[in-house]
Amino acid sequence: RDVVSHAKEELSYYRRRTIVFIDEIHRFNKGQQDLLLPYVEDGTIILIGATTENPYFEINRPLLSRVRLIRLQALPESAEIEILRRALTDKVKGLGNYGYQASDDVLRTISSYASGDIRMALNLLEQASSLLPMKGTLTDREIKEVAGDHASVYDKNSDYHYDIVSAFIKSMRGSDPDGALHYLARMFDGGEKTSFISRRIMICAAEDVGLADPRALQVAVAAAQASEMVGLPEARIPLAEAVLYICLAPKSNSAVMGIDNALAEVKTRSDWSIPDYLKDAHYSGAHEMGHGNGYLYPHDFGGWVDQQYIPDELKGHVYYKPVRNGEEASLSRRWEERTNKKQE
To answer: How crowded is residue 156: how many other Cβ atoms within 10 Å of its Cβ?
Structure first.
């Protein structure tokens, strides 16, 4: 509030606008971000915010709509190697007075640990070099001793997490076993819960394999149950099996497309009818109201009888459109033969 008060004075008396820089702005809660909104909107302050999180997840939409978003990309490996080489040879601000040597492959190893963070890369270089004698040669051994195992950048609350999940699902949908296993491994390595992974696999089995191979959902459910029973690290095996099954299975999205088409139409009104002969007729007086009268019991006709089930106002509407893959091809063919319907 003091900053805003000072900014108003600067603008009123001296016609100078105040720049407010907020580092890690994602740590401001919704109420704190809302406080900034009117002063950004009326030009009292020029807001510059920095965040390592996805602003579309962490910044209020009204505030985000009033600022310009500039995305800073991670440094490419070639740039990191050039900076590390400069730090190794610079005699004023770097390590040049020590005469250390390092190949590009070793500097590339440091870059891989840093994942685009040049500050981390420079710290690793300095710490690893401190293990060497004067004019020593840096190797992977020193880097490993300082850095330990590769630190996973997987964050279950960040957009990087959702990017990996998205790539995982799309790899299964796209029938790429290697890609799917790669992203599955990254989720395991990042500490993702098996229950979360299982849900994604089951959804993919129903949404993307569907009737083309109904066993895919059974395999996915069985893998989910097995993973909960055995726990990690063994849970990786049944989950990987389910992932591979989905990748190798034929694909159909007729189930998700069908229900989504039906839902979209159902939401257009609230007074859909039900044919009287389909209404509940188990109670006394139902038949007097016409409920259940004229209903044709399919089993009396060998399992199927020509009868309208959809409301009169939707007669002729089609939600289910078969995909001619795998078992759905034979299932839909038998259905069409039985009902004398032909889908385009």
So the answer is: 14
- Which CATH number is 2-64's, of 3.40.50.300, 3.40.1360.10, 3.20.20.300, 3.40.50.2000? 3.40.50.300
Q: Are 73 and 88 in contact (CB under 8 A)?
A: no
Task: Please name the residue that has the structure tokens 């302050």.
Answer: 45
Q: What stretch of H or E contains 206?
A: none
CATH of domain 77-147: 1.10.8.60
Maximum distance among all Cα pairs of the chain, rounded to whole angstroms: 102
- With CA atoms as reference, report the closest residue to 28 among 64, 2, 4: 64
CB of 18 closer than 8 Å to CB of 6? yes
Burial class (CB within 10 angstroms; exposed 0-12, middle 13-18, buried 19+) of 27: exposed
pLDDT tens-place values along the chain, 344 residues long: 788 888 888 888 888 888 999 998 988 888 888 888 888 888 888 999 998 887 887 888 888 888 899 988 878 888 999 999 999 999 999 999 999 999 999 999 998 888 778 888 899 999 999 999 999 999 988 888 887 755 555 555 556 778 899 999 999 999 999 999 999 999 998 888 999 999 999 999 999 999 999 999 999 999 999 999 999 999 999 999 999 999 999 999 999 999 999 999 999 988 899 999 999 988 888 888 889 999 999 999 988 899 999 999 999 899 999 999 999 999 998 888 877 754 44
pTM surpassing 0.70?
A: no
Inter-residue contact 64 to 55 (CB < 8 Å): yes
CATH no. of 268-339:
1.10.3710
Chain-centroid distance of CA 268 in Å reads 30
CA-closest candidate to residue 106, choices 89, 93, 125: 125
